Amino acid sequence: LDNREELLVRVRQQMHEKRYKHTLGVAASARELAVRFGADPDKAELAGLLHDYCKCWPVEKMFEILVRHDMPTELLEGEKELWHAFAAAIVIQTDLGVTDADILQAVRYHTTGRAGMSLLEKVVCVADYIEPNRVYPGVDFIRAKAMHDLDAALALALGGTIQFLIEKQKTVFPLTLTAYNDLVSRKG
Ligand code: DGI
Ligand code: FE
Ligand code: FE
Ligand code: FE
Hints:
By secondary structure, the chain is mainly α. It has one domain: Hypothetical protein af1432 (Orthogonal Bundle), CATH 1.10.3210.10. Helices cover 67% and strands 0% of the residues. It starts with a helix and ends with a helix. The model has no long low-confidence stretch (mean pLDDT 97). Bound molecules: 2'-deoxyguanosine-5'-diphosphate and fe (iii) ion (3 copies). The site of one fe (iii) ion has 5 residues, from α2.
């Protein structure tokens, strides 16, 4: 889609009001982070705008798309919360014509992260955690970190999610763990 207004309408149609507000917040925060850390601001904003495109879709619809695209059993048998990211990376390509590989990767890995994340992937992932509408214990500390150290902010964010999952006795997806390990082991 080449028209920005049309794109916003399409995104708006996929989700409820609050999720759309979050989406606009992530797009704005991703642009800011991109400017600060030297990623492409336009790509960051677009990835932010599209990252939760499938978040409010019925799980059956996401499942069907993931199966059709041969996603690993680990993902299909795991936590459904993770599906929207992988589904969106497919759907924004097929339905909206997004072809930029950096953007598709940033959308695909925005929830789990992965080892060796690109700058744009980190920007979108951190933006998802710190956009202005987000409220959770520790968010201001992560926002402060994100003013000068993107990796540190991301390690805090993913570490917080892992802690939260452990408290709830939920499974931690392997990619989330390797993303976290990768960030903290690089620090030295
Ligand atoms: O889509 P958002 O709510 O904006 O945020 P998100 O895509 O980062 O995360 C969506 C949910 O996924 C959130 O409730 C935490 C959960 N999550 C993230 N990583 C993992 C996870 N859930 C499990 N079970 N395992 C993970 O590794
Ligand atoms: Fe998400
Ligand atoms: Fe929702
Ligand atoms: Fe999000």
